[in-house]
Amino acid sequence: GGSSDTPGGTDGAASDATSDTPVEGGTLRAVFAGAGASESLDPFAGTSPVDFVRNDVIYDSLFILRDGAPEPALATDAEPAADGMSFTLRLREGVLWHDGSAFTADDVAHSFRYMSSPDRPLPSELQMYFDMGNVTVEDEHTLTVPTVQPIGDPATMLASFPAKMVRSGATDFSTENAIGTGPYRVAAFEAGRETRLTRFEEYWGGASPTDELVFSSVSDPQARVNAVRTGQADYAGDIPFSTAKAGIEGSDLEIRTAGDTNRTGFAFVLNANRAPFDDPKVRRAARLAVDRARLVETVLLGYGEPGNDLFCKGARYFSEARPLKRDLEEARRLVKEAGAEGAKVVARSAEYEAGYNDSTKLFVQQLREIGLDAEEQIVSLAEFFDPAALEEADSVTFSSSPLPLPVIYGRMAAYPSFALPDDEFGAAFGEAMAARTDAERRTAWAKAQDVMADRGNTVVWGVADILSLARTNVAGIEVRDQAKYPYLGKAGLA
Amino acid sequence: MTADSSTFLTAEGLRLETADGPVLDGVDLSLTRGESLAVVGSSGSGKTTLALALLGHLRDGIRHTGGRVRVRGADILPHAPAGVRGSLIGYVGQDPGAALNPYARIRTTLLTAAGRLPRGERDTTVRRLLERVGLPGDTAFARRYPHQLSGGQQQRVVLAAALARDPAVLILDEPTTALDPPAKAGVLRELGALRERGIGMVWISHDLIAVGAFADRVIVLDGGRIAEEGPARRVLTAPRSAAGRRLVAAGTRSTARHTRTPPASGRAGAPTAVTAPDTGAPLHGANPPDTAAGSDSGKTDGPVLRASGLVARHGSTTVLHGVDLAVEDGECLAVLGVSGVGKSTLARCLTGLHPAAAGTVALRGTPLAPDVRGRDRRERAAVGLVAQNPAEALHPRQDVRTALVRPLKRLCGITDRAELDRRVRDLLESVHLPPGFAGRLPGELSGGQRQRVALARALAARPSVLICDEATSALDTVAQEGVLALLAELRARTGLAVLLITHDARVARDASDRLLVLADGRVAATGPTPVLLPPGDSPEEQVTRLLTAPAGAVRPTPYDTDRGASLV
Amino acid sequence: MSGGIPTAPMSPTAPTAPTGGIGTGGGSGTSRTGPRAAYAWWGLCATGLLLILLGPELAPHGPTATPGPPYRPPAAGAPLGTDHLGRDVLSMVLHGGRPLLLTGLLAVGIGSVFGASAGLLTALAGARSRLPRMLLMRPLDALAAVPPVLLVLLILTALPGRVGLITAIALAGTPLSARVAYAAAEQVVGRAHVEAAIARGESRCRLLGREVLPLVAGALLADAGIRFTGAVYLVAAAGFLGVGGSSDADWGRLIVEALPGASLQPLALLAPVLAVALVAVTVNLAADSAGHRSRKVLA
Amino acid sequence: MTLLAGPVGRRLALRVATGGALLAVLSLLVFVGVDLLPGDPVTARLGPNATPERVAELRAARGLDEPVLTRYAQWLGGLLRGDPGTSFSGKPVSEMLADRVGHSALLAGLCVLLLVPVSLAAGLYAARRPGKPADRTVSTGALLLVSVPEFVIASGLVLLFAVGLGLLPAVSLIPAGDHPIRHPDMLVMPVLSLLLVASAYSIRVIRACAVSVLAGPRVEFLRLTGVRERTILRTAVVPAVLPVAVQVWLVTGVGLVGGAVLVERVFAYPGVGDLLVTAVLGGDLPVVQAIVMILGAAMLLALVLADLAVVLLTPRLRTGGAV
Ligand SMILES: Nc1ncnc2c1ncn2[C@@H]1O[C@H](COP(=O)(O)OP(=O)(O)OP(=O)(O)O)[C@@H](O)[C@H]1O
Ligand SMILES: Nc1ncnc2c1ncn2[C@@H]1O[C@H](COP(=O)(O)OP(=O)(O)OP(=O)(O)O)[C@@H](O)[C@H]1O
Ligand SMILES: [Mg+2]
Ligand SMILES: [Mg+2]
User: Which positions fall inside the ABC transporter domain (chain B) (predicted)?
Assistant: First the structure.
């Protein structure tokens, strides 16, 4: 069963998880945004939706996320040591690689080393938590993994970051050598164009329904829509709101949402390290000033709802609180009180995702209404995350899908311009990371998010639906970690 | 005048106008099959306009306001029906250089004119056509492009193209102006043969002698009207109209010899010019000459312009192999040579437009840079050139005034507006053009008018040496006489030296002091004109003899030796 | 042309005013649009120009105002509806003309003048001198070898803002302009009147401007006219790449931004496209008629 | 006549030599210029996922903290050995470019192949009727086409032919392992969109040149001698127009190789233009540098060819005549 059975909050859009179950056989053709020639079968190299979606069905992780909670996959258990400074990883037995060899602890040790190698273009973020080079293999199916800070819930971390398992010794991921344990094996691959995958009959989780999966990379959203519309594909991921709003004629097509626990939170992260947002009052004023309804209507075209300034709605331990009401009077008062009237505010943005720049433009106007001298700074993608420039910016436009809370807050803490310098928050965050039981974690996260809600530096103004276009008979599509990268290992045509 | 049944081409009451007035007014004309009709008239009298009208074409700016032109009874104005031009009426334009397609080889031009031919016949057709006009028929020549031909060669190619389709009538607008006497004789023979074969001709010419030998009937145009018409013999011997009388008189009278002033040392134009009474001198009047010609610095002995050992190449072929020449103040040196021998190239070498590959050009003893860009203002002003092709020599978008003002400003440094206007008026007057022409564009001028503008432009800077490359070829006899008289006067009064490149034997004989004959890229002969072309005989025949004589048959004359210059 | 020349009354064929020259020009088939039609045409152009230049003053809303919901169809307050941000399309179009026109015309003007001069100078120097070829054409070749998008990026990095944008567009257009000019002039420079001018020692400026330019102006104007639309979209591309220089309401930007929602609010796309098209057609036809005088003679 | 031995051969040799020198200059400009582009390839690649320490680490690992000239020398060395380096995505640049350059060249080549007859025909058609309604129609039509951006035209074509009529595939989803040439149905609309946009420039320039030639004395003379209009066009007008037109065609064609970004996007065509923009946006400098070098070399080659074409097509220059 899928995770997102909750019906989509938006009228006219079907949920991604339909009640139909796919029938045996056939070919499912799906189009996703790609990264052109830099796409890769290396499961740690890809950065685009099609990379994630493709590599998800070729390779497996140790744990997967389901409803925000870790679920065993190639590993059956990750048990932290008493001091939290290491954990024992037990692997599933009877798992076969696509070439027929058996999956063992050596493969895991190699995978850990490979993904965290400093030579990689994108060394795994897991090394912020685990000492991945110093894994010890206890036996064929057991390993011990040291950590760099106390980690109470290693399974969640292993599930949250792309940590696919590759065969021991694998460094080359050309079409012939892209060997995983997943439900599909590679038949043909051309970066930026197409991947053809055939079913792996010996898959440990039970063979998939569909004979063949074909993924095409199509960067332009309208082109993805056109591909489905004209029958060149069955499923298109991540389509624009305007397409949905305009509607698609054709009785066998439907626009689906990933459900309201799988929405993307859109935010402005305020730089709490410099004036004026170093003053909690001004931060609060900005949150009071933002016209959430208007932003949702304009930027999301109504596909979503106002946010409550906390990231990761839908994730585990998320604090549901009511969004602040817009109150310009109060906001102006706070600004005046903080002596920040006419303060210069630079709102930095790049079109990292659709809607960044538009929301920034509107935000700037709204900030001006409360007496701040706001101006947008729209830059190219390549410049966007330049650390020096980020430190100079007062607000950075940002978004996140409902990642597990440790991931998002860990990331923000690591970025000086995103971090919230607040002792209370820091303590609660540390507690949450080290907590070993569910209850402890729940209280610690509640505490941390209370601080964020009170004087935090994130203005999560809305959560946006993730839309896809599918033929009505496409079934079995699941959301695991992020709805933009759905899991198609169980999908097929009904 | 009504056309009888054999009439092929008629014009009835033809009236063509420009914005300024009529160009042709009530012209009646008829041509029967096989007849040869000559149209003569002073420059600008409307001959070319008439010829074009007979082809059903009006130049821009000319309107058809009355009368008609018919071919075999069908109107061809304002639009000529397909099939008239080329196959019925062939045309040889006044300005071949401007007419040939620069992108087509000679062969292609001829084949295009000949129409559809079986593949096998093409080579022979091209050869036959080229040989008919006295050009080499070999493949290498047929593969040349127009820019690789001399002016005379170009003209003959155009003629060959017109013959290609054996039209019923040929309209020839001054078809021999750029031809040397032997070549001209050849072409005339060829045309005579055509006439024998019953091909009609309308022939526009300034060359009354050729006309007399050739035409059945002559029409004299004057200011766009027919001044008189009649059998050739009668019109040329006893013209009844004033215009006809003028033309004939000028054409048969031996131009008064303009001998050069004695080459006494120290004699120069300067004192003469400066002290000249301010009265009737249109050109070198009130203003002291401001060029080297007039300054006293260069008043040394010896020639004003001397070239020695000039070698010139076009690509890999050498055209001039070491030419020596010298012109003295006030002297007129005529350069003769068959068409294509390199006369224009020589002129361009002297002016620095075609840098010589070897040899020197010296102005009053000072060597000049081979490339005109390397010469200073004085040096540029001192050597004037009237290029062979007047149509190309004038900027199509610049009016006559601008053409004349530029050298005045640039080379004489005159900036005063009134002074400029006065000089422009004087210059135009000196070449017998009305001052109103200052506002015209070259496209609105007749061929002869353009040539006179080009001449006036060359004179504007008051050069010490004037190189005239066929500067009178497009002029009628009256105008020609005027121009030669002007040159003579300038020579006498200001010491202007003239290098006269010409095919016109009569001009060479009557206007020059000395002759220089080019053959095979070398100086074949040189000497005083009276020696080489003694008066009396037909100058054409003498020149033909000179040009066809084996190299070295004519020896340098004592005149050269006694000047101490070895010229051969 | 002939202004100020004393024309003697005796002249049988006194020259007429300059219009005579124009009227008689134009080759065998050129239209003889009367002066009336020409005035009407120029009047229309002038009106359009004025409208564009005054546009920002006429616009009912500011360039950043968002008076309505996004993608609203035409209604009383907003005759062309609103765009993706809820901005009034009419106002945006009115705001977008002036910056675009000024940037475009300036950039194209500079680029074409520079390119044409380089091309003409080189053609004029001819085979005799390699120097202009080496100093002008070869560097331009190198410039041509840099893709325009990258050129824009590089220049805007070094020189942000409108000046950079103008420089970038001008430079992007220069190489081809130079080549078109060179190739066209190459057919003309051998003519005897150019030689005569060289022999007179005319300055290079005069040689280029008076002797050669009029004979190749048609091709150059056609080149510059089309380049103008190229400039419009280079401005848009700069915006698309997130590098500054263009204002919010440049028509190019408006078009790029309106495309995703074209099915919801086609007017937001059509209005700026139409505006660009109108200006492009006008600019080009104006260039044509300006070149009309000079292009009749080339060969 | 052996062309290569004559003046043409000398010119060509010289041009090729200067072309090589220019390429060297270009390489330095490109490397340094691209390096100076704003943005940091490492942060651009890592996005918000990286801590500053990791960024610094990665910069060191990629050798980005060495002086630019050192890196240039290394890069140039690699280039000469046929190795343009490694993309920030970890893939060898050569592998990323391998097919895409060819695919884009195919698109551009097909476009130019059609552009030549289309622009000649339209340009001459208009030029023969200057100022007449036919001329206005062609000119205005061309201008309208060029002023509508290519992605609007491309989208319009998709709406018409793919979504509306269902005649052609909306997206060029070329199967893995296949060459686009094997799927002509997927090439039709991309080529057509490029053609519609690119032809305006050629048409206008050709028209302008042809108008002046047609009004000149040579054509007048040919007409007077009864040469048919068609022959006049072929022998006198086209040759005069070609030297200019060839420049435009070649430069347009090469420009399309890297410049058809938006059309490639609309049709998801696997070309190099999209890659270039993606790489620029993503700060993937090695890829940008390699693409720009390839496009630059192609452009320089095209320019050499264009120069050669002018010489070959202008008899006065071909025969090495006077200035
Ligand atoms: N650009 C050129 N390339 C090659 N050959 C040329 C070129 N120009 C002229 N020639 C050749 O050089 C020779 C000399 O030409 P030039 O024009 O000097 O002759 P010319 O004596 O003036 O003849 P004409 O009396 O017919 O004008 C001719 O044979 C001509 O074919
Ligand atoms: N397009 C024009 N516009 C205005 N006037 C013109 C035009 N063409 C010719 N003329 C004038 O018409 C008159 C006749 O010109 P035409 O060319 O017929 O003379 P022509 O008899 O051939 O003279 P030439 O012997 O000098 O060639 C001249 O005065 C000339 O200036
Ligand atoms: Mg005449
Ligand atoms: Mg000659």
Answer: 9-248, 305-545
Let me know if B553 is exposed, middle or buried by CB neighbors in 10 A (0-12, 13-18, 19+).
exposed
Q: Point out the ligand nearest to the CA of residue B387.
A: 4
CATH superfamily of this structure's domain B305-548: P-loop containing nucleotide triphosphate hydrolases (3.40.50.300)
Domain for residue D283, yes or no?
yes
Task: Give the alpha-carbon dihedral of D83, D85, D89, D95, to 10 degrees.
Answer: -10
Which residues have CB atoms below 5 A from the ion given as ligand 4? B 150-151, 344, 388
CATH number for the domain spanning D239: value is 1.10.3720.10
CB C193 to CB B60 under 8 A?
A: no
| pTM score of the predicted model | 0.81
Domains B7-253 and B305-548 share a fold: yes
Residue type at A156?
A: T
For residue B280, give the DSSP letter.
S
Question: Which of B314, B316, B351, B501 most suits a substitution to test ligand 1, by most atoms within 8 Å of the C-beta?
Answer: B314
Question: Cβ distance D138 to D122 under 8 Å?
Answer: yes
Give the closest residue (by CA) to ligand 2 atom 18: B46
Q: What is the pLDDT of residues D174-220, one digit of tens each?
A: 888 888 888 888 899 999 999 988 888 889 889 888 888 888 778 88
Assign A399 to helix, strand or coil: strand
Identify the closest residue of chain A to D62 by CA–CA distance: A119
Helices (H), B11-118: 47-54, 96-99, 106-114
Give the gap in angstroms from C-alpha C277 to the nearest C-alpha of chain D: 5
Q: Give, as one character, the DSSP assignment of residue B102.
A: T
Domain ranges for chain B = 7-253, 305-548
Tokens, residue C155: 């220049």
Asked if C68 and C82 touch (Cβ cutoff 8 Å), the reply is: yes
Q: Which of A229, A242, A379 to mutate to test the interface with C (most CBs of C within 10 A)?
A: A242
The closest alpha carbon to B454, from A423, C199, A14, belongs to C199
Give 3-state DSSP helix, strand, coil % of chain C, rounded to 5. Answer: 65, 0, 35
Considering the domain boundaries, does residue D35 fall inside one? Answer: no
Query: DSSP label at B381?
Result: H
What are the two backbone dihedrals, phi and then psi, of residue D257, each rounded to the nearest 5 degrees?
-60, -45
Q: What residues of D are in contact with residue A230 (Cβ under 8 Å)? A: 162-163, 166, 169-171
Q: How many CB atoms lie within 10 A of CB B322?
A: 16
Q: Quick count: other Cβ atoms within 10 Å of Cβ C299?
A: 25
Give SS3 for C120. Answer: helix
pLDDT digits (tens, 9 = 90+) for B128-167: 889 888 888 888 889 988 888 888 888 888 888 888 877 8
Give the domain range for residue D252: 93-318
Interchain CB distance below 8 Å, B393 and C26 = no
Domain count, chain D: 1
In CATH terms, the fold of domain B7-253 is Rossmann fold (3.40.50)
Residues C280 and D146: beta-carbon distance below 8 Å: yes
Decide if pLDDT at C216 tops 70.
Answer: yes
C-alpha–C-alpha distance, residues A229 and A471, integer Å? 9
> Which of D224, D236, D322 has its CB closest to that of B103?
D236
Q: Complex ipTM above 0.90?
A: no
Residue D149 lies in a domain: yes
Within a domain: D49: no
With beta carbons less than 8 A apart as the criterion, state whether B200 and B227 touch: no
Which of C273, C249, C243, C248 lies closest to C259, judged by CA? C273
**Residue range D139-181, pLDDT digits in tens:** 888 888 888 888 888 888 888 888 888 888 888 888 888 888 8
Per-position DSSP letters for C270-291, written without gaps between them:
HHHHHHHHHHHHHHHHHHHHHH
Residue A451: what residue type? V
Say if residue A107's pLDDT is above 90. yes
Q: At what angle do helices D68-80 and D285-313 cross, to 10 degrees?
A: 60
